[in-house]
Amino acid sequence: MKNGWRNSTFKVNFYSWLFLLPSLIFLTIFTFYPILKTIYQSFFQSMQGEHDSVFIGLDNYKYLMEDEVFWEVIKNNIWYALGTVPTSIILAMMMACFVNAKIRAKSWIRTFFFYPTVIPTIAIANIWLFIYTPGYGLINHILSWFGIGSVNFLGQSETVMAAMIVMIVWKQAGYFMIFYLAGLQNIPTNLYEVAKIEGTSAWNTFKTITFPLLMPTTLFVFIISLTNAFKLVDHIIVMTQGGPNNASNLLLYYIYQVAFRFWDKGLASALTVIMLMIMVIIAVIQFFSLDRKIHYS
Question: Membrane spanning segments where (predicted)?
Fold first, then answer.
């Protein structure tokens, strides 16, 4: 009996790992190996045109700790995340609640809200580049109706980050709305019927029923939006290239600059490792702190 049980268990485990093998191969080649290679490369000085890399230990990390541009980029990324993440989540939730109600032309309104998501980021960046253009851009044209002079939103350190945040929120709120819409449709309707019979106001219904039951969706959307805050750089390449004076420079774009403009692969690897550490810390906080406070049933 024991041998038969062991054989059946071995077969189950063998076939399970066999099914997982293609995924493990892809993860190893395209995820685990690049991460280990990047960590290894971060301890070397490796410039373009140099055949031999020089081991310098933690010097790349020491340099970054004293680099003013690096800390400026980190500060920008924090403000960028604080501006895009909560705003996108709140707006997406409001949009989902609106299109989930019994309204006319519901399908058209959903399409209108979701449409910016299907447009490539490069195309959106060019559209908003025209909108923000000083003098004849759409926003400045509207401001001229009120006697306000031309404003160079992308050319001033005080306004460029806000301009970037508005554009990204406009693009990704509709995408997050789809997740909230799916979450709303999974909430039992009898809960709303009971609240209506008891005369509960719309705000109290949202606060006691809708919002708590949407928390798993909110955690999922929060993870995606926070990840996007560190990986979306296409619009920066088109619109500002990190300027003016690094006021719109973000961590991933700074990595691109160091690697492909300054050709310092070692320093770029160190920056990548720091970004990975930030993402790991964020993931740990999310799953071991926020996830425990969420009810899934």
Answer: 12-36, 78-100, 112-132, 138-155, 162-182, 213-233, 269-290
CATH code: domain of residue 162: 1.10.3720.10
Band the pLDDT of 291: cuts 50, 70, 90: low
Three-class SS state of 238: helix
Which residues of the chain form beta strands (DSSP E)? Answer: 44-45, 54-55
Half-sphere exposure for 205 (CA within 13 Å, toward CB): 17
| Burial environment of residue 26 by CB neighbours within 10 A (0 to 12, 13 to 18, 19 or more) | exposed
Summarize pLDDT for 37-63 with one digit per residue, the tens.
Answer: 989 988 888 766 556 678 888 899 999
Q: Which domain holds residue 124?
A: 40-293
Q: Is residue 22 part of a domain?
A: no
Question: 201 phi and psi, to 5 degrees?
Answer: -70, 165
Q: Does residue 11 belong to any structural domain of this protein?
A: no
Q: Could you tell me the CA-to-CA distances from 32 to 28, 46, 201, 217, 265 in Å, in that order?
A: 5, 21, 52, 29, 19
Q: What is the average pLDDT score of the chain?
A: 85
In a domain, 31, yes or no: no
Token pair belonging to 103: 């309204």
pTM of the complete model = 0.84
Q: Count up the domains in the chain and report the number.
A: 1
Q: What is the pLDDT of residues 242-288, one digit of tens each?
A: 888 889 999 999 999 898 888 888 899 999 999 989 888 887 877 77
Task: Spell out where 155-243 has E strands.
Answer: none
Judged on CB neighbours under 10 Å (0-12, 13-18, 19+), 55 is exposed
Asked if residue 127 belongs to a domain, the reply is yes
Q: Report d(CA 199, CA 92) in Å as an integer.
A: 27
